């Protein structure tokens, strides 16, 4: 396969502002071209090729359709490392969150002491709601600076500081997620899995 | 290219369908029935499938296998809770549970292969040509081992399985082909043994599955079980009898419960009457009774629905249509619960028993190149990961990823000169390896001896359009493809499947020979009968020479008929026919005269 990155698969520049509906249309077009369903009668080698291309298109779309996973992918690309979705290494607590985390920890201990049924559990839910809001805000902030990145690309400016900022915000956000999930676990209110898969 | 058929291999019933003139149709059997009960019975006269096997459920309980889909791709731990309730003996093996039929051990794929073979023959009889390729549906939430087992079953039955399609997705294709569903649709599929929920976006011929979820061990069978438990308690209270240890009685109860359940989808109350040896059991059951028995089971389908919505990034009110698939969705309680969850009335405009098979036929037609404007983008239902240090799972491909898809992972050695690396691949959503489904252990062998940490082994995990995993490995420093030995945790090895395919040919040959012998014997009997009757009626018109020849030929055929040499019986039958030919000619002449006379008589009678 000659295509090296997901932006190239879709014929896009390495930029963060992407026209969602256009991306979807292109995804469908590429799928019609490469999906194994349409190469059933072909020779084995052609079928294998279609399978590989189709897999590439699907992975590329998954990485690019969501603005936040797009940022994650771009960072990995800029740093030249392998990206993998859904890694389970627990993110470490960013220093800025330390104080808040201590508060949450305290609320959690109290709630546990009360058997998760009393007032402290209520406080824990409030903490969780606050963290959820913070989590959403982090996401919006990251996406909000996408156009700025694109401008730097166009003007050939120094992208490094913004890249670092993206990384920090993403780390904070990932950490918030694990704390929220831990709280839900403790409250016995978590549905589904630990990996937030499709949307961020 | 030969025809590709679509097959719904169901827990309770199976069907085969084909697209003709742009419309998918179920292929009926000779009696016009669409549904083939997924039941296989081993009788003294051979293996029977479908209705014939259903009649064996009670009197031949230990050799009649039903609902085998629940055992497909399963290990002992998965099914141990229900084994006690099955009337046939299941051998508890960790890798593949097997069913003991007399002195034979039969695997679930072999049982399913009997059902598939019956459908294959049905299609062959319908089209008058061999059918060798098929699309087979599976529950969307089937894992890798269950999918592989289904594919194995196809191979054993002599079918090349071109695609494994998810049942709810197939249903959406059937609806979509007829423009009966558009926008965001939720397919709620509750069958005999499995439950699936799939959320799709259907737009301009593209069927994009956004998320899927389910439970491969929840369906009508479980409702029947709940009813049987209730009946057992009632019988204990009213008749002081405990029937739970009597396989035949349990089978009667199960069939009674199933029938009552179906009636209660249309009637408010029904009467259950089962004649047992010592007493006849009568019981009034109301729909309200039934709903109390199964409410908690129905409620367990709602969690997966919510999770699928969350994974699709949608709220319930963003779903444009809710489609019901599977026989169990006929229950009013199910319809109510689904309507409550999605805030809109669900519909099942296409027959919920047939819609999956129809969709499979549509997919078959897409693969055959007969439909080019429909594009199906399905997903993998479960996350795929590998075990890392400390027994933690590292996810490589998250659930609800559009397939085909692939992930690459890099591994190295931890000891100098190490030449092999073990990988443990898992499927599931839990953090710890032990809580997930173990798919396989891969042994990457043939790594060049190097200092620890030097080799870089690239492993590619590819999930194909069937949702089945393929693994490739290569050492990057030497560029050598590492050989991989796959030890599937559950399921059959390649060698085992090959053996079963061979066995099926052998048995198939036995079966064919047996059938041909019976046919030849029957033909001989017919000829013997005719000749004897002719000799009685018109023996007088034969010459002495003719008569001696006929008697000799008749005696020879009778001797041959008592044996099993088909060719000899055939030859003797032909000889007898030849010996009687002159006599037959003369009888024919006489008969024609008679016919002319009797015709006159007929005419006279008619004019009367």
Order of helices and strands of chain A: HHHHHHHH
Number of strands of chain B: 29
Assembly type of the chains comes to heterodimer
Radius of gyration of chain B: 30 Å
Beta-strand fraction estimate of chain A: under 5%
Average pLDDT of chain B works out at: 88
> What does the average pLDDT of chain A come to?
83
Counting DSSP E segments of at least 2 residues, the number of strands of chain A comes to 0
Based on helices, strands and strand pairing, what is the structural class of chain A?
mainly alpha
Low-confidence stretches of chain B: 599-608
The most extensive interface between chains reads: A-B, 32 and 50 residues
Number of helices of chain A: 8
Overall spatial form of chain A: extended
Helical fraction of chain B equals 40-55%
Query: Termini separation of chain B (Å)?
Result: 61 Å
Helical segment count of chain B: 14
Helix content of chain A: 55-70%
What ranges of chain A have pLDDT less than 50 throughout 5 or more consecutive residues?
A: 85-89, 192-200
Secondary-structure-derived class of chain B:
alpha+beta
Strand content of chain B: 25-35%
Q: Mind describing the biggest β-sheet of chain B?
A: 6 strands, mixed
